[in-house]
Design the sequence.
């Protein structure tokens, strides 16, 4: 790689991490903290270097037929833009994305940015440790989402007619990455390769096996109640009243159980007794809950999945936007053809006007010559 002397003087102590050749001798040189756009001498411009720091809050792209404009939003400090040939946009955008993600502390030291993809309203960046997703008109912004490979426990695919989904099972939830079918294989292979390399496996089956919970032996021996159960003391029960007391206790227990199952109370019981028993049950329930939590267990919370998957909705929106963009491109091309015809017509009109002016001049000279001829 040949680094121009003007760029070399602008680098300082930094090294060039990426280099993208543009039109002619123009080129983009990317360092860990900034991008340097080098413009060679031309008919209308002198040799120059423009710097674009990577501490941007957002990246926006405007792609035209011949040139594409990349805008870096620096928040309160405004934004800065530069243009590159449309055919070089993806090559230029990839290292800039890597630099911005690094400056924003999204990626860690030693983490490499492998691939980046743009699908209208969806941008995917695959690194060695994660997938970064951004949905919106901007290519990247602070409202990004990420899937960290450390949490991934399984991989699968869901095929569709227009687009397909890569399903990543994580320790928190199920994540989905949707892409058009013509690009889906590239996305799937890029994500799979990165995930497999991170977990040191070679297939989805190995990944699932490596993350499956260990099977524990529940045991089938006899149930032991231990030595903490005190014997029932029956020394106070008399011989004569034991049957009656047992019968009364059984009847009271049955009545109480029936009332509790029916959701009611015994009207014959004094209100003070009922209130005291209810308070005792509340204290006992609170004590049981405290003992349950102190033993290392927690009450399970309901995990309700949303009725509409935000990722699926974003992907559908991306598909619709892609179709709209295709129609817009077609209309732009038709407008270009019309403009070309209009230019041709204007040129023909200019030629006709020039010929008409020559004809008028010839007629005037003819009239002058006729005036000089004597009448016969």
Sequence:
């Amino acid at each position: 790689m040949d680094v121009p002397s003007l760029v070399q003087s602008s680098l300082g102590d930094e090294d060039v991490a990426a280099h993208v050749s543009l039109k002619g001798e123009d080129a983009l040189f990317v360092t860990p903290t900034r991008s340097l756009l080098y413009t060679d001498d031309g008919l209308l411009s002198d040799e120059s270097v423009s710097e674009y720091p990577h501490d941007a809050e957002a990246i926006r792209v405007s792609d035209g037929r011949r040139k594409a404009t990349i805008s870096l939003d620096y928040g309160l400090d405004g934004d800065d833009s530069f243009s590159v040939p449309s055919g070089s946009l993806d090559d230029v955008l990839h290292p800039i994305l890597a630099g911005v993600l690094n400056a924003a502390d999204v990626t860690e030291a030693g983490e490499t940015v492998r691939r980046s993809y743009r699908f209208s309203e969806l941008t995917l960046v695959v690194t060695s440790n994660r997938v970064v997703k951004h949905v919106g008109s901007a290519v990247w912004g602070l409202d990004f989402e990420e899937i960290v490979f450390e949490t991934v426990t399984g991989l699968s695919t869901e095929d569709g007619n227009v687009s397909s989904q890569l399903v990543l099972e994580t320790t928190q939830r199920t994540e989905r990455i949707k892409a058009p079918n013509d690009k889906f294989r590239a996305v799937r292979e890029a994500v799979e390769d990165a995930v497999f390399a991170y977990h040191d496996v070679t297939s989805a089956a190995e990944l699932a096996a490596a993350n499956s919970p260990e099977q524990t032996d529940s045991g089938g021996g006899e149930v032991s109640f231990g030595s903490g159960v005190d014997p029932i003391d029956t020394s106070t029960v008399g011989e004569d009243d034991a049957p009656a007391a047992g019968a009364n206790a059984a009847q009271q227990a049955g009545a109480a159980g029936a009332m509790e199952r029916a959701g009611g109370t015994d009207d014959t019981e004094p209100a003070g007794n009922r209130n005291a028993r209810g308070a005792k049950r509340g204290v006992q329930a609170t004590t049981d809950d405290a003992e349950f939590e102190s033993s290392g267990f927690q009450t399970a919370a309901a995990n309700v999945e949303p009725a509409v998957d935000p990722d699926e909705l974003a992907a559908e929106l991306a598909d619709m936007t892609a179709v709209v963009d295709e129609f817009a491109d077609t209309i732009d091309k038709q407008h270009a053809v019309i403009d070309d015809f209009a230019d041709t017509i204007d040129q023909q009109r200019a030629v006709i006007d020039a010929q008409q002016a020559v004809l008028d001049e010839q007629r005037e000279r003819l009239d002058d010559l006729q005036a000089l001829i004597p009448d016969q």
Observations:
- Confidence is low (pLDDT under 50) at residues 215-247, 261-268, 294-304.
- The CA atoms of residues 360 and 366 lie 10 Å apart.
- The chain has seven helices and 15 strands.
